[in-house]
Predict the 3D structure of the following.
Amino acid sequence: MLDSAIERILSDDRIKRIILTVFLLLAALSLFQGCKNAVMVSQDFQWDAAKAFTLRINPYDESLSPGGVLEKYGFEKYYLQMEANQFPSLLMLLIPFTFLPPLAARYVWLFCNLLFTAGIIILLRRTFLRDTDDFLFWFSVLFMISGTPYRNQLGVGQHTLFAFFFFLLAVYCLDMKGKKGFIAVTLSLFVCYFKYTLTVPLALWFVYKKRYKEIIASVILHGVLTVFAAFWLKDSLINMILKPLKVSSALSSEGGIDLPAMLNGSPAAYVLSLMILLLLLVYAVKVTGYPDNEGLLISLLTLWSLVTVYHRTYDFFVLIILTVLFSVDFEHKRKILCFYAVLMIYINYVLRIFSENPASRAGAALLYYTFAVTISAAAVRKLTKNGQKS
């Protein structure tokens, strides 16, 4: 029934215009509220941690054992608690914002996130969603902006828009040739690791593309900056790795529907996550040479990246990339796309209605993991068929 309704909608231009108009209004309201929240909150921006770093105050020590830095420098007016959960080489990317006072920096960060949003839309159209029908593309964009995950992402001043933009920029720069292309991809990858819980799994795309030099070079850059951070903060190199992880670990079981949250931070969750990431690596290597599998590959990387480690549901706006599935040929496509529609409605709207209470999150988890497994099975079947044909 649902797939026949979708077909009727896609064949009627008047209905499509009405739908886009309605979602344009919803997106505008969501964007307005997200901006309002960002000005008032933006607690995840980490301006305070970056500022402490510039003052040669160890933000990780201050996060783990507060010593009064927030009060001494007046940061507590904007940040109640320092949570420096970024590695120092990533935290240093925020240093330009520390030349501004905290409130001004918050406004500039909001403006940057709006620019990153526009950039994400443009880059999606030029990369993974280049073959997507115009209506589906713009509907997906408006649907994303109107949804709770995007609005919350903007409101809390999170970094996923920043990181996702640079991941897409790295993908876009893959077509550039020679030294210029190498530098562009490497630098974009280097920056995109800012939200490494999302973009490190997504970086398996570059394994699929056999761009190993860029991956290695981007990691080396972070290594160099980590050595400098150890010198700057007068701490050991190993602490520059362990202390951010220790800060992050305090949140490991507080995600939305990720495996650590589902299993209450059990070590089994991390073992399972590692196994999933290794399987994704194997798939990325195996699928090389079958470009018609690209849509399924990026869908798998996105789906599993959101649940293998800590993520709150505000990161789930990146599921817009799964719109690529409409342009991919695979078994049981119509049923799976209907499943995708239900999942997205639930995540974008239903969770908010129930304030993400435990029961609603359990429902989201059931839908999400069932869909992720279904897509994984479809990808394996398609890869097997490609192998038989070759």
